[in-house]
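[step 3/7] fold_predict: job queued, chain A
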Amino acid sequence: SADDIGTDIARDASGNLYVTGQTASPDFPTANALQPALAGGRDAVVVKLNSTASTLIYSTFLGGSLDDYARDLAVDGTGSVYVAGWTLSSDFPTVDPIQSTFAGGVYDGILAKLNPAGSALVYSTYFGGSAEDRPTGLAVDVHGAAYMTGLTFSTDLPTLNAWQATLHGLRDVFVMKVTDAAVCKPFVFLANKVTLKRTKQHTPAGDIHSNGTLLVEKGDPSIYNSNLTAVGALTIQKDNTINGNVTSPLAVSNAGTVNGTITVGPVATEPLPDKNFSAGGPNKTVPQNGALALAPGSYGVVTLNSGGTLQLTSGEYFFDTLRYPGSTAVIAIDLASGAPVNINVVRNLQLGKEVKIRLLPNGESDSELVTFFTLQGTAVNVGREAYFLGNLIAPNAAVALAKNSQLRGVICANEIVVERDCLFLHHDSPGNLPGPGNLPKASAAERLEFHADQPDAAGYGLLQNYPNPFNPATRIRFKLQKAEHVALVIYTLAGRSVRELVHGEMAAGQHGFVWDARDDRGLPVASGVYLCVLRSGSFSAQTKLLLMR
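[step 4/7] structure written:
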């Protein structure tokens, strides 16, 4: 009954039509709408029709209480829709925003992504400074990254990794790239380096990609229902079965069994998600064996004590720190609304031993609605026997999934280390996790297993250190068949001696020493992988130690 203006149209691979624009009509036709009513002034609209334009698949308003304009539209291979435009509204709907508030001026840019059903926003954000900002173009690549360009009069337009960081004239062109957690979606693990330690669990599943090296260590034996891709070296050690394809531009080193195709050919680098946010507000503590409910919002340090339950709900959370120094705690998330929850951490995210992510009311099937995103550069540890449901995004950090942990979801990180006897499943993998505390554990004999480089070295052995990964200290144990001279030395992977723990005569039997992650001068060493080498007479053995500060 009022003005309706179409500004862009697109078609997907199935021929379905997508239209965007703006309307002042309160009676604009809607179907399966994300926002069924005009919020005020003019609202943007997003419409999907079948290939002959004879059926309305969905149609929705998108806007706040003032004028909102959609200028451009794009569709990716999954059917997700991206809309760019500008707004006067201070209450334009945002989800997982890179800029959560209207910055001022005449208009701010807006960028929104709708899921394939048009029923929810994957993300929606303002983009602008204190003057006028208007997007004029939009494109999407095969990875789901959005590229937006436009004009700005703002001297304080947000910039990141900028080729030109300041306004040079009355108005300048801007170009931006935006990714989201969905970029990781095809992979259970996506990182610049991936290491899988052996597992007896049946059967980890999900595709794995490394922008650097990918190492599958000696199996137990181990089976993975996964496609493996790596931009760097890809190594599969013995006693591993890969039910999938393996691809690397370098020669694939395979001592296992690949029930798929091994291809030496190009592999594209997969971008890690980027985000920029801050947090601040009251500090909160979940009492030991107690509970604390937090509404979406911004907080300082949130501490989760042993046996406690942190209660969250759908929406946006911003924490300076989310720390969990104890064990057997629960993060319970109410997803009854069907909307996602985004838990954004600025400085430090740690999930300790036996942490459980509990999703209400549907449990594991809602794992895709949950995203933890941390900006930290220090290591993220998902503690031993953890039960993690959701996406864990840590583009600047190394993430360790500790022994006997369960994962349903995705991890994207700078580096990923999956410790022994973990079970991981992608969001879309069939089957279910056993549930908290129900994952089979290694026997006592297996936990005391010795590793030596000589098959006839009965009576000698170097055990795997515990804990591993570790911070700030780890215990190293070994056994000797007889009394003799012993050297126990920590080295870098390059062979440089870091710390001599033992040098002298020792009695037969078992011995243990603690390394405090310091060198021979008493100085702390950096995070990374170190070699512990034991030499006793003609016997020698070594094991890797992973320090994650």
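[step 5/7] annotate
The first helix runs from residue 444 to 447.
The longest strand covers residues 387-401.
exit 0
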